[in-house]
Amino acid sequence: MNFTRYIFTTAFFFLLGLSHLAAQEQSAAVTGSVRDEADASVPFANVLLLEAATGDLVTGAVTDEAGNFLLTTPYPQELILGISSIGFESFRSQPFRLNPGTKKDFGSLRLESEMAGLDEVTVNAARPNVLIQADKTVVTVEGTVMAEGNNALDVIGRSPGVFVDADGNIQLNGRTGLIVLIDDRQTYMSAADLANFLRAMPADNIRSIEVIQNPPAKYDAEGAAGVINLVLKKNNFNGTNGNVHAGSQFNGLHTPSAGATLNIKQNKWTSNASLNYNQWGRFTDLEILRRFQLENGLSAFDQNARLKLLRNNLFFSGGTEYQINDRHSLGINLQASGQKGAEDGNSLTAISNPDNTDLNYLNALNDSESDNARIFGNFHYTGKLDTLGTKISADIDYTRMDAGSLSMLDNRYWQNENTSQGSSDRIRTGNEMDYSIFTAKVDFTKPLGAEKELETGLKGSWVRSDNLLDISKSTEEGPFVPDPNSNHFIYRENVLAAYVSYKTPLTEKLALQAGLRAEYAAIEGNSVTRSEINTQEYLDLFPSAYLQQQVSDDYQIVYNVNRRITRPYYRQLNPFVFYIDPLTTEEGNPDLQPQYANNLEMNHILKNAYQFSLSFSQTENAFGQIMVQDEENRKTSIQMQNLDRTQNLSLRAVVPVEFAEWYSSSNMLQLNGNTFQSQLGEELLDEKQFSFMVRSQHNVLLPKGFKLELVGIYRSPFRDGQLVINGMSWVDAGITKTFYEDKLSLTVNGSDIFRTMKFKGNIDFDRINTDVQQYNSMQSVRFTLRWKFAQGEQFKVSQRSGSTEERNRLE
Which tens digits make up the pLDDT trace of 200-225? Predict the structure, then answer.
């Protein structure tokens, strides 16, 4: 391992020093002049080049005394030209693309006089709520009504093709095994930890969500189903701005929230900080009916439970960046989050016997507390090595998380109506966990002329996780005795990766991007308690290819293929046994293997807004949560296992509709065909399932400055391994009103308005016959009051959802 680390470190710094390879060439240019209605020049107008997909500032300038402007940029991406000047309506161009060494002349651009005198001129980098690009789907979050008062997990669940279940597990196109990035950086969390972290992150911190079903070689191969990247807000203009907010939600529980954000850009320094507090809580009503086929007849467990969960979340995010000069910058980012929660549950299970004479009861009272703290630090460098776009970037990250929980499960047993007689026992479970992650990566990009580009990079990650599970039991009022299922587990993982990617035009209408990523993984799981050590070591290759066909200016077809992996979470490899109740346990699986997916996709894109895609994926060793029943003792265990093979065929259509200047919608229809094949014990799981999902979002600008958003989602019945889940639907809505020249806003959001987001499912496989019904108090109303302040430049980039055309605010 020391040798591979030495090789990696040497290569890392060698690649970081490649700046002498960059050639000094001419950049692309944008020129024009700005005139008023009388054809007089408009001097000192603000002229901006913005990324069409994200609204990020690329470069800016002001017109000279004759109204002329000249902008140079190495960007080969789609851009938008925005112009603003005091007393005039702002201008925004249609998206256009610049190639290295070319020049685009806009000629004379005429600005119309603004009817109402405004203290601030806005350049509206407006874009659709959903923007379709060749390699990803970009969903606007900033400036939308639904972002107010919601958390990151809420807005992820409203993205096209994404489904978030009641426990916070995320699916993309009906598939599990994706990863969530924050500003292109991995979070390295289990599904449960990630869900809690995203619930603590306010949606207002997010600018946009990138849904990448088949990522190119630059991205980690982790995430068999794809990648969701959260792009956080940044400040691009000199001055100071920020906001403070407070709110409250009611879903049976009152949960407050408050926070503040501050952005400062002064010359070469850009800094931001946000601090947010919120409470997150819910009631869960759970019904489970389990049937055991015994030798002498049928026994049924009819369980009804109500759980209350309340969690306090504190989330800090901050960063600063120093622009050394026009080409080089350094920066640091920090995130810190803390959570403290309490959960109590009351479960009553009626147990019938085959002879139908006596009825046994189990009453389980669960009282638990948990807390965790996470800190993340990042240092990054970006260097533009010439004016054509040659650049190098490096990141060093460190993450540390400490978590602990303590639960007490009090169980009482009695027969028939004799509640005063019977027996009792207690199960006490303590769980202490910490992990640390160190990662380093470097990326190098070199344009080779004529729209050709070479990318290459290295990355290394080192993970250590320490988990101590302490279980003890007592009968009646006796002392607690250590349980043999207690376990101390230490996990280590080292992944070293290298990639190369090449992009080139094949013809005037065809372009190819091909890449190869190699990842070496060394994994060790050490059960200290059991004196068992499991090791895995493997080198995998992950090819990817994109073929882009530009049929016309507004229509392109993208074909792509890639191979990806999902490695087990640290906790899943821990051979623990966790008691949900005396008759139900969750178990780890030290033999769990990574799952591999081969993906194909054909994507039709019209006007960067309409999408029709057909994709196919085959996953080997697919993860599946498997239920196993012990008929003799009438106990149930749940464990993540590898399924032999799953296949997914998906057809998706995204169709925006512009009904009027003040009313637009974004609509999605997705069809899925899934197959599951695996030998589970003595039985063969061989099932096929067709399902579909419909999503429709409506954005309405109302008189008097009101904005309304409505989202409706329906998902048909679908299968997840053994489990068949009934169809479900829900409707969310939000309305906002601004006051005091848009400085103060009041937003009201309603979730699951008709209380229809209910989970119902059934397992009927082998000798298992179980029905499940669950509702998590998703119906809620939320109020958010926000005050914005700004001091500095008199223009801003405003990103609004719903329309491809710039709109004035209705009075």
Answer: 788 888 888 999 988 999 999 998 88
Mean of pLDDT values over 137-165: 82
Which residues neighbour 307 within 8 Å (Cβ) at sequence distance 6 or greater? 283, 284, 286, 343, 344, 345, 346, 366
Domains of the chain: which residue ranges?
25-123, 130-798
Backbone angles phi, psi at 198, to 5 degrees: -70, -30
- Measured CA to CA, the distance from residue 264 to residue 43 in angstroms comes to 27
Kindly report, residue by residue over 343-355, the tens digit of the pLDDT. 999 999 999 988 7
Instruction: With cut-offs at 50, 70 and 90, classify the pLDDT of residue 237.
Output: low
User: Phi-psi bin for 167: left (phi > 0), alpha (psi -120 to 50), beta?
Assistant: alpha
pTM score, whole prediction: 0.79
Quote the CA–CA distance of 715 and 163 in Å, as a whole number.
9
Q: Which of 2.60.40.1120, 2.60.40.10, 2.40.170.20, 2.60.120.10 is the CATH number of 130-798?
A: 2.40.170.20
Structure token digits, residue 131: 């923007």
126: enclosing H helix or E strand: none
200 Rama sector, left if φ>0, alpha if ψ -120 to 50, beta otherwise: alpha
Half-sphere exposure for 675 (CA within 13 Å, toward CB) = 12
Q: CA 47, CA 43: separation in Å to the nearest integer?
A: 11
Main-chain dihedrals φ then ψ at residue 160, nearest 5 degrees: -60, 130
Q: What does R_g of the chain's alpha carbons equal in angstroms?
A: 28
Beta-strand relationship, 328-352 and 297-323: antiparallel
In this structure, are residues 365 and 345 in contact, taking their beta carbons and an 8 Å threshold?
yes
Residue 6's contacts (CB-CB under 8 Å, 6 or more residues apart) are: none
CA atoms within 13 A on the CB side of 550: 11
Q: Give the C-alpha distances (Å, rounded to integers) separating 591 from 468, 574, 627.
A: 19, 10, 17
Length of the chain in terms of residues written: 811
Distance of CA 22 to the CA centre of its chain: 35
Rounded CA separation 164/176 (Å): 10
DSSP assigned state of 205: G
Beta strand pairing status for 121-124 and 239-250?
Answer: unpaired
Q: Tell me how far apart the alpha carbons of residues 57 and 799 are, in angstroms, rounded to a whole number.
A: 12
DSSP characters over 349-403: EEEE-TTSS-EEEEEEEEEEEEEEEEEEEEEEEEEE-STTS-EEEEEEEEEEEEE
Each residue's pLDDT tens digit, 556-570: 999 999 999 999 988
- Asked whether the CA dihedral 528, 534, 537, 540 is positive or negative, the reply is negative
Identify the CA nearest to 564 among candidates 609, 523, 618: 618
Query: Residue for token digits 């190495």?
Result: 74
Assess contact for 200 and 192: CB atoms under 8 A: no
Residue pair 634/650 in contact by the 8 Å Cβ criterion: no
Structure tokens at 468: 């101590």
CATH of segment(s) 25-123 = 2.60.40.10
CB count, 10 Å around CB of 24?
9
Contact 4, 520 (CB under 8 A): yes
